[in-house]
Amino acid sequence: MLLLTGAMLAFVVPTATAKVDVLRIARRALHVAERADKAAKKVKPVKSKQIVDGSVANAELADGAVDNRKLGDGAVDGRTLAEGSVDGSKVRDGSSAAPNWAPAP
After folding, report:
1. Rounded CA gap, 5 and 12, in Å?
2. Which of 8, 27, 82, 91 has its CA 20 to 30 A from that of 15?
């Protein structure tokens, strides 16, 4: 019985005679690293659907990254303006009524 089991295993279990080719493994590793570097260097623009609401803060924006062309109509109102950021030279004639004026200092 033992002889029969040994004979069956000889056909089922592959032999471990394959040699390890170190040069081939090193070349594969180098190829994988080169592909990873190439993929990392590709610049892919981010689309608005990929950004979660509220996930981009001032720290992530480059200086000058947002200008008038990027702002939608009505996107900036009195709550979002810094104190003293708008003076008379920035207001169009007839665009503001007296109730909106602050008292003169």
Report:
1. 11
2. 27
